[in-house]
Amino acid sequence: MKFPEGYQAQINVIYTKVDGWNGRMDLYANPKSEKPTPVVINIHGGGWNHGVKESQTGYSSFFKNGYAVANVEYRLVDVAPAPAAIEDVRCALIYIYAHAQELNIDTKKIVIMGSSSGGHLALMAGLLANDKRFDTNCTYSGEINVAAIIDKYGVTDLVPLNKWGSAKRWLGDGFGNLEFVKSVSPLYYITKNSPPLFIVHGDSDPIVPYSQSLELAKKMISFGVKTKFITVPNGKHGKFSDKEKQKVNIQMWNFLDNLDFKKNN
C-alpha cells in the first residue's frame, strides 16, 4: 500500500478478540497533521463468507484529501454466523473512537464505507449510531455517530433475501425468524437523525437487487436525511467501466466535501 509522507502504517492491529479469533485492521494515520484528521473505515465484501482486507486498495483519493484509513476484517460465516460480522464492525468503529487521540483522528469526521456485504455492514455500523445492542464484545461509554456512510451496492433488507444462498447461510438458524432478520437489516434502523448517505448501485446487478438501494434511498429521503443515490446504467455487481468509476468517485467527493466538516473544527 502506498501512502503519503507523514503517514504511519500499522498493519494487523488487533481491534477485538472473540473465542480465539483475532479481529485485525490495517491503519494508515497521520499523527503529525496539525489538526486531527478525518478517517474512512473500509469494509470488504464477499457475501459474508469470503474476502480479505488485503483485497482492498484504491485509497489514494482519501489520502490526497487528508483522511486516515482503517481497513477492517471481520468474522466470516465459517467462523460465526450473524450477527457476528456486525458485532465486529461495531468493535472496529469503537476502536477508532477509543484510540482517536493517539491516531490523531477527529471522531466528528468518521466515514464508514463498504461494498456488497461490506456495504451492508457499513450501513449497520453507521445506522446503529448510539444503539449499542450489538456492542457485546466492545464497550464505549460516549456517543457514537458517524459523519457519513458510503454504501456501494450493499444489501439493505434481508427479509426478501432470507432464502438467498449467501444470506440464508449467514443468517444461520435465524433465517426463519422475521424479527431477527429485521434486526440485522439496515433498512429498519433509519431515523431522521441517521448520518448522510452516499449510495451507488448498477441497475443490472445480478447479485444484490438494485431495488435494495432504491428502497434504502426512498426511506432515507422520506426521513429528510441527506442522501445521494448514483445509478450506474447497465452496471453489474461493482463491475463498472473505468469511466463510470471515475464519475462515481467525483460524485462521492462532491458529496463528502459538501458535508461541511469545517463546522466541526
Question: What's the short version?
Answer:
It contains eight helices and eight strands, in the order βββαβααβαβααβαβα. The chain is α/β, with parallel strands linked by helices and 265 residues long.
Strand content: 15-25%
Count, helices: 8
* Percentage of residues assigned to helices: 25-40%
Structural class: alpha/beta
- Give the biggest sheet: 8 strands, mixed
Summed over residues and divided by their number, the pLDDT gives a mean of 94
Rg, rounded, reads 17 Å
What spatial order of strands do you see in the largest sheet? 1-2-4-3-5-6-7-8
From the spread of the alpha carbons, the general shape counts as globular
Kindly report how far apart the N and C termini lie. 29 Å
Describe this protein's structure.
The protein is α/β, with parallel strands linked by helices and 265 residues long. It has 8 helices and 8 strands, in the order βββαβααβαβααβαβα. It has helices at 60-64, 84-98, 100-103, 117-128, 165-171, 178-183, 210-222, 242-257; strands at 8-18, 21-29, 37-43, 68-72, 105-115, 148-152, 197-202, 227-232. An 8-stranded mixed β-sheet has the order 1-2-4-3-5-6-7-8, sandwiched between helices. Helix 4 links the parallel strand 5 (105-115) and strand 6 (148-152). The longest helix has 16 residues, at 242-257. The relative contact order is 0.13. The mean pLDDT is 94.
